[in-house]
Amino acid sequence: MTNKKTKFDWILLVILFSYFMILLDNSIIFTGTVKIAADLHLNQHLLSWVSSAYSLTFGGFLLVGGRAGDIFGRRRIFQIGLVIFGLGSLLVGLSQNAPMIIGARAFQGIGSAILAPTTLAILVDTYEGNERTKAIAYYGAMAGIGASVSLVIGGVFASLLTWRVGFFINVPISIWMLYLSFKYLNVKSGKPGKLDWLGTITSLIGMSALVYSIVGEVCRLAALVIAVIFLALFIRQESKTVAPIMPLRLFADRERVGAYVGRFLYLGAMLGFWFITPQLMQNQLGFSALMAGVAFFPLTVVNFIVALQVAKLTTKLGNGGMLVIGTTLTLVGMLGISFFTPQTGYWLGIALPMAIIGIGQGLSLSPFTAAGVAHTKIEDSGAASGVVNVMHQIGGSVGLSILVSVQGMFHSSIDGFQHAILIGSLLLLLALISSIFLILPGERSTK
């Protein structure tokens, strides 16, 4: 353990609050798009870029952000990420036109790309044994709980105040986190070295092009071709250089590979679910944007309760066992929601299966995180955390794109929703298979 904890765990507070800020901003964009478009006079194309600009830089800089902490020191890189994210949030809140908000969102995405992997790497460096299991449980729970709670908070800001408050609030939080990081964080890089600039450039172009091929509106095929070419060059570079930003040895461990594949598929299903379900509740059940966010409480509350038990359950069932149970329950809940009709109503058609999803989500996200950084050396924890977040970000974008596309193939919104949820269920089934055949055997082979 590199840090002696104080009586109150300020380090974990810094990690979780920083992660929550990222989740909050994503949800505010979901709930505030209508008012953002009205305030800044944005058409649908420009409005899509408010989200896409952030996704491009977030996805593009994740691997670099993760590896930079390994080389230059976690605290320093974390503080740089906080400053960029806080300043970007301020600029988004102050935006008066399309170029300003799109540019500010892109800048904010760079801060998120630094914060997301660095906070997880700090967690891995700081805690050991059962304390690490508990900390990862809280971190993983934040991924689900934060995303759900943020829908409510975003709805409150957009409906009762202004969407700008959701970005302005990040400024004092970032300043407070920066103060706490100077006072309590004392983590160092595991292995000083130089950043692989060729790997950095090829990964930036490759990852950004890959994200654009998913979220962009024109030249998507060309972007995909560019992504394949530059990611191939990136992998070739990483296999040759002595100081890779993504050591290929990370993929030599069966458990980690299973975690990367499983997280990609699981988040693909869940982000699509989080995106299309609030729309269904508004269009079919007459819910307001705020009430659609509140309607996620069955998932959120159950998720929170279950997440508090994850550390205890992991010691009994093992990480892989938890994943199999959690992913299975998530799949059962998702299949339940696929039967929704206006006649079944909210409580039976959505709330009940959503509570089952909450149990599964609470049991799954923390173990996926733990497996993604399992057996890593301290000098690779930042890079491993970067890959975990890449799979989270890219998987979510791919899944969202697939589910929305499937939904749009049907004239009936109910039919479209049901088939989209069934595709999400298929992604969860594949995630379950990866847990059974990759994570479980990989976990057992190291015991």
UniProtKB/TrEMBL annotation:
Cellular component GO terms, alphabetical: plasma membrane
Keyword check for Transmembrane helix: yes
InterPro entries: MFS, MFS_dom, MFS_trans_sf
Membrane topology according to the record: Multi-pass membrane protein
Pfam families per the UniProt record, alphabetical: MFS_1 (PF07690)
Molecular-function annotations in GO: transmembrane transporter activity
Keywords: Cell membrane, Membrane, Transmembrane, Transmembrane helix, Transport
Transmembrane segments: 12-34, 46-65, 77-94, 106-124, 136-161, 167-185, 221-236, 257-276, 288-308, 320-340, 346-374, 386-410, 416-440
Subcellular location(s) of the protein: Cell membrane
Domain Major facilitator superfamily (MFS) profile stretches: 11-443
Name of this chain's protein: Drug H(+) antiporter
